[in-house]
Design brief:
Its main location: other. Heterohexadecamer of 8 large and 8 small subunits. Residues 9-106 form the Ribulose bisphosphate carboxylase small subunit domain. One of its GO terms (cellular component) is carboxysome. It is a single chain. By secondary structure, the chain is of the alpha+beta class. It has one domain (21-104): Ribulose bisphosphate carboxylase, small subunit (Ribulose 1,5 Bisphosphate Carboxylase/Oxygenase). Helices cover 25% and strands 25% of the residues. It is built from two helices and four strands, in the order αββαββ. The protein has a four-stranded antiparallel beta sheet with strand order 2-1-3-4. Strand 3 (84-91) and strand 4 (96-104) form a beta hairpin. It is globular.
Length: 109
C-alpha cells in the first residue's frame, strides 16, 4: 500500500492523476448523455472558500458532441494557462449544478 504524497486536493476526481483529453471526453459524454448542460469555468485559485468562478463564454446549451466542449476547454486553456479550469454540468430541470471537475491545473513550481 502506498501513501499519497501530501498535496492539496481540489474537487471531484482530484485524487487521480491529471486526466487525459480522452478521459475528459468520456466525462463530458456522460454530462451530455444525462441531458446536463456543460459549461467551462476558470479561476486563479481553487481554494475551498472560493465559491465564485468566472464562466468561459456562456454555457454550451446547444452542445451535441464532446468535441465542441473539448474545443472550448482547449481555447480556455490557451487563453488562461495560469488558471484552474473546470467543466461543470448543470441540470436545467433542478436548476442547479450537478457536477464539476478540474481539467487543468497550472504549473506553479
Amino acid at each position: 500500500m502506498q501513501t499519497l504524497p501530501k498535496e492539496r486536493r481540489y474537487e471531484t476526481l482530484s485524487y487521480l492523476p491529471p486526466l487525459s483529453d480522452a478521459q475528459i471526453e468520456k466525462q463530458i459524454q456522460y454530462i451530455l448523455n444525462q441531458g446536463y448542460i456543460p459549461a467551462i469555468e476558470f479561476n486563479e485559485t481553487s481554494e475551498p472558500t472560493e465559491f465564485y468562478w468566472t464562466m468561459w463564454k456562456l454555457p454550451l446549451f446547444g452542445a451535441k458532441s464532446t468535441r465542441e466542449v473539448l474545443g472550448e476547454v482547449q481555447a480556455c486553456r490557451s487563453q488562461y494557462p495560469t488558471h484552474y479550469i473546470r467543466v461543470v454540468g448543470f441540470d436545467n430541470i433542478k436548476q442547479c449544478q450537478i457536477l464539476s471537475f478540474i481539467v487543468h491545473k497550472p504549473n506553479r513550481y
